[in-house]
Amino acid sequence: MNDFIFGMEKHEFDRVNAPRIYKMIALRGMVIFPHALVLLEVARDKSLVAINKAFEVGEDIFVVAQKHAATTMPSPKDIHRAGTICRIKRVERVSNDIVRAMVQGVARAEIDSYMSVNPAFEVTLKTPEITDNKISSASEAYIRSIKDAAADYTHLDSKLPQEISQINIEDDPERYAYVFGQYLLRKEDERQRFLSASTPEQRLDMLLLAIIREAEILKVEKKISAKVRKQIDKNQKDYYLREQVRAIHEELGDGEEELDEYLAKAKKLKLPKEALEKIEKEVRRLGKMSPTSPEASVSRSYIEWILDVPWEKTSSDNTDLGLARDILNEDHYGLEKVKERILEYLAVLQLTGSTRGPILCFVGPPGVGKTSIVRSIARTLSREFVSMSLGGVKDEAEIRGHRRTYIGAIPGRIIYHMKQAGTINPVFLLDEIDKMSSDYRGDPASAMLEVLDPEQNFHYRDHYLEIPYDLSKALFVTTANGVETIPAPLLDRMEIIELSGYTDAEKVQIARKYLLPKQLAAHGLSKTEVVIADEVLTLIAETYTRESGVRSLEREIANICRKIALRIIEKQTDANRIEIGAGELSDYLGVPKYSVSIMNDADEVGLSTGLAWTAVGGKTMNIEVTLLPGGKGEIQLTGQLGDIMKESARTAISLIHSRADKYNIDAARFATTDIHLHVPEGAVPKDGPSAGTAIATAILSAFTDRAVSRTVAMTGEVTLRGRVLPIGGLKEKMLAAYRAGIQTILIPNDNVKDLEEIPANIRGGMRIIPMSSIDTAFETALTSYRQ
Fold it and tell me: Which of 88, 430, 597, 635 could disulfide-pair with 478, CB 3.0 to 4.6 Å?
């Protein structure tokens, strides 16, 4: 046989293999094989220089694929080693910066070294050594296997190029491999692996596997194609038969039976006039359609939606106030204000027989019982209960539905849940109403205006139904974590009822009466088997949870129950009664997660105690002030303070500065003393104006060298004139002070009215001093001079 090194004659290979420097082009997303004729579009600067210089002097050019097509300016490390020496057949300029070149692969080679990278890539190449023309036994075996596989493949692929069948693999196996591989290998990485193979045997092996794989794929494709043709023939047959059946039913009048059922059901339900007219019109349209047409399915679905939604069916309300009070007390501990409002609603319902009234909105932190109290309302009234979460709703169509012109249109979630309730007077919970948002698809909050307005919702129109629907008999109740994000027009339609956080004593009672029995039953335990003292429940609430509600408390109780169940099953305890005390608590729950806030160890100068409100309850907050003499009167505020709190600090400093003579302070010290104010726990963001009084007290303490009593805590916004303004979250703040052991608490005078909401044991456990002026805080909190 002839020498088949790269499909070239020996003298031709000697010419190509002459040691010299080649211009090189890096290709993106393309691999060229020897013998392949390819049209290239060259646009990158280095490639343009290389192709132009090589063509001018009649030299061959080396083309190689870069590793990642997205790389716009490849360096040597971004380029594969193996590529193809190509002869330039033709070059034509398409534009100023694009050249089109026709090249033909001549021989495979590998980069030996880079001689230059600018202005164009120039490389020296490694080419295979010339061997004798004997074909190895391994190559002979591959050639025979490829001939058999190619024969099978030729019968399957009618698009196989003639060039492949004209090459005799026994005469020129290398050329056969490259030409057939160029056709079969469609992925860039496969082609590069093929070209990078160092021996002819490796390339023949890869070609054989590719032929077998493609043949299997073609067989599956032919099988799928035959199945599809068979299915098409079957569908045409089915259509013909259905048309015949439809014609038979029309002759017999069978198709009218379903339509008559729709009309009979509509009249039986005593639908409103407009709804009945709509159904009659749709029934007439449906009678003229083919039963199998898509329009018939849409029309049928519309009729069934109208018939399935309740129009007159109601549930009887429970008007027994005594029973209602018992149910509310059975389901929830505390929440007296909420219970009283529900009973007022029942009383009005009993007197007027009308359910029209304001929409209730329960606002409070997570876990305080907002959703569960709405369930209790439904149970108290003996009504159906449905819940709709509004968290993350951005599309108005979620509320109002899609118009029937859209494919797959359905009613909005309001109508859907009314159908789910089955009555027109359910208790309808709209959960997380503060989490709604809007985008290009509309504003769902605006759509809710019609739903929640008693003056409009008696003729609510869903986009899908297109007929008025009466929502006025449903009792809508909403919940939210805060009212800040609720649009003002929507907020105006609701009566806000705030649910504040529970005290530790309330949490213990809730755990004792509700959470512990619930978790014991859920874990197969009885009250007689497990005993947890109140002091342990208090310890769990204080050191293992930090929340306004009781969700984490319930999870910790469940954690204890699981461990007890495991010990019983593994027979680690033989006791019939397991008592958990404070000493054993860490065995079940691990080390405490939180520390109980306690007051400072001693009275200190420049250290006052403020009170803060957080989403999980109140907490005490130390305010530290240090004076740095010899400064320039600069103010440094640290502790991750928000803008409002920084303004409060500057206001307090200006207040003390303006009254320097009154407090026996040398006013000149403010110009030569730097003031550093810090609030500990720097990783926690802090903001709000209510720390103004505590900041002013700490600053005055530092300038007068008088200590601040550690038993005194305060809250209130301070003005430049020394007035103390009201604050929010008084209950949570007083609870935090009580837990910390504070004996005296200073509150704004305008917040005295809020003391009614504070539990009696909290009010009685501390001395409460109202203040309208900052001087009251100074007189109460500042003690003797430091010695």
Answer: 430
